[in-house]
Structure formats: structure tokens, C-alpha cells
Design a protein that fits this description.
The protein is 68% helix and 0% strand. Helix 5 runs parallel beside helix 13 and helix 11 crosses helix 12.
Length: 352
């Protein structure tokens, strides 16, 4: 197993190289560079200021309404030109980015004007908290429910819960979030929960228990939106996996020997039935990104999902590349963690 883990770790390097290279090319070939965004701001500022000019009085205004000196200065600032004023081709900029990566230097955010790592790490706790909590709650509820549905397969309980789960499955996360916000947080219906944000405005003035309650109160609707996407899938997968396992010969043999149904299900069948469920654990480390874009946008949560949208809209290349790099690392380690869990669940699995 140790050799397998070492081999997987070594294979991560070329995989990560391929992901970052492809992402860098796509992002840089997309229309609307950070320089274009900045020039647009300058032109809008100049128009609102009666043409006084964010160009700062520099001469030689071109068709863009901004002097060439300003455009060149922006290109140098954002790394599209070298110190001698010569354009840097895309492969040169990628290798500079790769070289800086060796020292974990992702550059500065064009929008926030701070180091990329500081920007990403400041948003990470929000996405991590909601992502891991929703993942934990989903498995905590869905695995026992799936097992119980398998035990009671064909009963009224199975039919009623299956109907409810498929109704839930038919509602996309985006629509679920909007409906929850409208009916449970809006003043027009039942304002039982806050409309958004992580805490109330007067959070710092509250006592310890009131702060805990305030955070819980704000987290209910986002967590429900997080979970709605995977709740039905995981429950039905657990039920089907359990039904497949209890048909196997070794389970029938255990029953023939007079082993109680409780022991048959929970001791003999459950362990093997968990193998397909472990597959979904590959996203346990990258869960802070998964689904967070929709949820954070609906509930105004200042996390990494919202940061992704903001960075894409403002063409903040450095932050986008930083997000892709961290997400790729987490996903690759998540896949490795899944393989280790396979062996934990079923020691017969041998990757060597």
C-alpha cells in the first residue's frame, strides 16, 4: 500500500502540470483581460469626471480614449509586458507563473491588490465550514436511511420515502435555495430565518450562547440547500447497494446458520455495501468548492464560491489560477483518500 501511495503521489505532479497548463491557456485566451477591465474603469471614470482623465494628463490618446503610456503601464503591471516594453507570449507567462509556484507565490490579486494566498485563505473558512458540515450531515442521515429502506424494501415506509426523495431530487439546488429563501426568510411569507450572511450585524454585542445560536440560525437554510443535491442520490445508492449485498451467498449462508437479521445486516452486509458509498468520499476535500457557488450567491456568503464568480467577472487571472490549483490539489488528494478508505472498508482490496 505504501508503494501504491508513493506512486500516486508521484503521478500527481504531471497531472497537476496538465491541469494548470490547460487552465492557464483557457483563462488567458478568454476575451476581456484585466487590462481591458481596468481601461473600462478608466474610461468610465473619465466620462463621469467630464473627461478630466484618469489618464492623468498623459498625451497621445488613442481610439480607446486612454493614452498609450497608460496602456503600456497597465500591461507591465499585470505582467503582459516585460520591463523593456516587449509583449510576453503566453508560454513565457505560464513558465513565470510556474517558477513562482515553486515558492508558493501566486502573485497579487488584480482586484483586491493583496497576495492571492491571503485572499483565498480569508474566504476558505466559510466554504469549508458549510461544505464539511453538509457532507457530514448528509452521510449521517442518508446511510442509516438507505439501510433501513433496504431492510423494509417494498413496505409503505419504503414507498413513501422513495416518493419524497424523488420529489426532492427533481428540485435543482438553485431553485431549492430560492424557494427556501422566499418562503422561510422573506417578510412576505414566514421570516423564520435570516435572508443571508453568516452572522447578524450585532453579532459582536451578543453573548457566547447567543452567538452560537446566531450562527446556527444563519446556517440552516444554506445547509439545507447544500444537502438537497446529494441527499436522494446517496440514500438510493445506499439502499440499492445494500439490496445487492444481501442477495449474495455468504449472507444467505449466515441466515441459514441462524444468525439474527440484525447481525446479518449490520455486521455481514453493511461493510461491503459501503464500498460504492466510499466512492463519493473522493470529494471530501474539494467539497468546499462543490455547490458553494450557487449557495454562496443566493445567501450572500463570503466564501470561495462567491470569490470564483467575482474573479471570473473581473478577469482576476492570478486568483482564478490560485483557486484552480488549490481545488486540483484537494481533488487529487481526495481520490487518494478514497483508495485508502477502500482498503479500510474491505481489506481484501489490494492496490499493489
Amino acid at each position: 500500500m505504501a508503494i501504491y501511495i508513493l506512486r500516486r503521489l508521484l503521478l500527481m505532479l504531471p497531472t497537476l502540470f496538465g491541469i494548470t497548463l490547460l487552465s492557464f491557456v483557457i483563462i488567458n485566451l478568454a476575451p476581456g483581460s484585466p487590462v481591458d477591465q481596468k481601461l473600462q474603469q478608466i474610461r468610465m471614470g473619465g466620462a463621469m469626471g467630464g473627461g478630466a482623465g484618469a489618464a492623468g494628463g498623459l498625451g497621445g490618446r488613442g481610439e480607446t480614449g486612454v493614452s498609450q503610456e497608460v496602456i503600456d503601464a497597465l500591461n507591465k503591471q499585470y505582467g503582459f509586458m516585460d520591463e523593456n516594453g516587449k509583449p510576453r507570449p503566453i508560454h513565457t507567462r505560464y513558465f513565470i507563473w510556474l517558477k513562482n509556484l515553486s515558492t508558493l507565490d501566486f502573485g497579487d490579486s488584480f482586484k483586491y491588490e493583496e497576495p492571492v494566498t491571503d485572499v483565498i485563505f480569508s474566504k476558505m473558512p466559510v466554504s469549508l465550514t458549510f461544505g464539511l458540515t453538509s457532507l457530514f450531515l448528509t452521510y449521517l442521515i442518508c446511510v442509516p436511511l438507505g439501510v433501513y429502506k433496504a431492510i423494509r424494501a417494498g413496505s409503505k415506509f419504503d414507498a413513501m420515502t422513495s416518493f419524497g426523495l424523488f420529489v426532492l431530487y427533481s428540485i435543482p439546488s438553485l431553485i431549492a435555495g430560492i424557494l427556501l429563501r422566499t418562503f422561510l426568510a422573506s417578510e412576505s411569507f414566514a421570516p423564520l430565518f435570516p435572508l443571508g450572511n453568516i452572522v447578524s450585524d450585532n453579532y459582536s454585542e451578543l453573548g457566547t450562547w447567543s452567538q452560537i445560536w446566531d450562527r446556527f440560525h444563519h446556517a440552516v437554510l444554506p445547509l439545507m440547500t447544500y444537502m438537497v443535491g446529494s441527499f436522494t442520490f446517496l440514500t438510493i445508492m445506499m439502499q440499492n447497494s445494500m439490496l445487492d449485498v444481501i442477495k449474495l451467498d455468504y449472507v444467505r449462508t449466515a441466515r441459514a446458520k441462524g444468525v439474527s437479521e440484525k447481525v446479518v445486516y449490520l455486521k455481514h452486509a453493511l461493510r461491503n455495501a459501503l464500498i460504492p458509498i466510499v466512492t463519493g468520499m473522493s470529494g471530501i476535500l474539494s467539497v468546499m468548492f462543490a455547490g458553494s457557488i450557487i449557495v454562496e450567491s443566493i445567501f450572500s456568503l463570503d466564501g470561495m464560491g462567491l470569490l470564483s464568480i467575482t474573479s471570473a467577472n473581473s478577469r482576476d487571472y492570478n486568483v482564478l489560477m490560485g483557486l484552480i490549483f488549490f481545488q486540483s490539489i484537494l481533488f487529487l488528494f481526495g481520490r487518494l483518500l478514497t483508495d485508502i478508505l477502500y482498503v479500510v472498508v474491505d481489506p481484501r482490496i489490494d492496490f499493489t
